[in-house]
Specification:
By secondary structure, this protein is α+β, with helices and mostly antiparallel strands. The strands form 2 sheets. It has a 4-stranded antiparallel beta sheet with strand order 4-5-3-6, with helices on one face. A two-stranded antiparallel ribbon has the order 1-2. 41% of the residues lie in helices and 21% in strands.
Length: 135
């Protein structure tokens, strides 16, 4: 992604420009981000999951997990967040065995998540463009 905005990308049949903000928390709001090692591992696994699935990550912030990403139109937001959460959960449990004991059968991440979208133009600009094209 460019610093001044979201880069236009293309697939075989579409051009797209989208930015998506995802936020999720550990199950039962447990404090798992105790040290820098687990924070860096979480960022690494989220980036690996994204790279394996044609998702571009711009920023990742850890306290609860914030991710700013762009992905092709063939994918839904729920698919993307499930990929990122599933991959990171599986690999974090392998790297940090104390997470297995802390959570045992519980999931690492809460089921819910926040999803917001953004772009380079406002809703008002899009409305004006549509009105100008019609008349």
């Amino acid at each position: 992604m460019r610093q001044d905005g979201i880069q236009v990308k293309s697939t075989r049949y579409a051009k797209y420009q989208s930015g998506h903000h995802f936020v999720w928390i550990p199950f039962k709001r447990r404090k798992i981000f105790r040290d820098e090692a687990i924070i860096e591992a979480t960022k690494r696994y989220i980036r690996e999951a994204a790279a394996n699935n044609d998702i571009e990550i711009d920023r990742t912030l850890i306290d609860h997990v914030h991710v700013f990403a762009s992905f092709p139109p063939r994918m839904s937001a729920s698919q993307v967040v499930n990929i990122l959460k599933g991959y990171s959960s599986r690999h974090l449990r392998m790297e940090f065995p104390w997470l297995k004991q802390l959570y045992q059968k519980d999931p690492l991440w809460a089921r819910s998540f926040y999803w917001g979208t953004c772009g380079n133009v406002s809703a008002q600009t899009v409305r004006r463009y549509i009105e100008e094209c019609q008349g």
